[in-house]
Amino acid sequence: MKHERRIFIKNTLLLTGGLFLQNDTFSKTMIRKNAASRIRKEINTLSATDPDLLAYKKAVSVMKQRPASDPTSWSFQAKIHQNFCPHRNWFFLPWHRAYLKQFEEICRAASGQPDFNLPYWNWTKNRSVPATFWGANNVLMDSSRRINAQSKALEEMVGTINIEKILNKQSFEDFGSYAATSQRPTDGSGASGSLEGSPHNHIHNFIGGNMGSFISPTDPIFWLHHANIDRLWATWNDRGHANPTKTTYTNYIFKKNFNNASGQAVDIKTGDMSDQNALGYLYDTQLSGLRLGPVNSSSFAFISSTKLVNSNQFSLSEKHPTSINLTGFKKLYQSAFPQVTSSLPTKSREVKAIISDINPLKEEDYFVRVFIDYPNLNKDTPISDKHYVGSFAFFASEHGDHPAAVGGDMKAMHTPKLTYVFDITNNLKQLFLGNSENLKDDIKIQLLAIPYRANGKAALIAGKVEIVIAQKEV
User: Which of 3, 15, 20, 408 has the most CB atoms within 10 Å of its CB?
Assistant: First the structure.
């Protein structure tokens, strides 16, 4: 009887969350659910008469009828993105979260529905633009799209395998893009991380038309796309990953970038956007899971003294893969993966491949796959192969980052050179672990351009490829 009673108590604790009380995970989850009365839902789960869908349609209609000079009009809200949005740096996620938050408030006022919650489009589960965004005389339709209702986003960009890889990133910069000095820097700081450079950019370019430009909020699907990006950030945090704590990030202020429901310009501090729970909303996918909290605050700094660099400009087209040779790999590998007897803590180092000074075709109707040392690379090489690093896509790269653009002077901008960063730690372990004594001194980073459409064109010029060791900061 005593044995059965112990089992009963143990099972009861498991069911009630008692075993989580040590780190208070269960209780924090319940508090979070109770505090957040607003739930953002997946658009494909809503019926045609769902209050959130009806309110969104009404808000879009009302906003489109307002004059462009009205800060709460459809046109004015789209130009906020054109004039202020940060891309390719770590302000990308908090800026767009603030943008969604203010837009949602404007929609509540415009629709007359104070309970409205912006839906999101989970393109991992449903790779086609939702049916409710198609059709003649539909306020949610955008005729500039270059796809149709049956078109599907690429599995390798938005599928479960790639999204899980992204959600497992340890560093915020690998996940949400790299540190920069301002939201639109001209000093070369910043680089696209995995969430922005892969699924985010791909969805914009896949849909095309207005969505493929910096007036992308003109297309009503934009807001649901970015709500999904925001959901993935919240999910990454829920899995125990922490946002940046450096004051250059947390204290940065987006000055009068946004408007409230009354049309007044407002300032928003980056740090105030870090805790999604504190903002009072949840996504429906968060209701059934526990929130671990920021138990894994991983920040990595590049070790500049140990890196491989090839600064020879190279070109890439859809016809032939390009291989960039880097010399000194054996020494770098041994430094990145020291012997077991080393005092270096486990998982304290990562290896990054940085592809920079990229100048793509303006059309951007293609994406690029990245491999390491694959023999006879071609378009049919499977991305399941251990030599495959990842893919990157483009989004409105002709849109410059000059500070003068913050304020609306589009003519003053320059075309930026793009940078993408990939974590190749696991690739190197799979390829060379256990064979470190026979390492060669050269290694190749390979790029393969893939057009989205048959007979499509692809071309880019890049100026530098690096392999760098990143050391975990204490």
Answer: 20
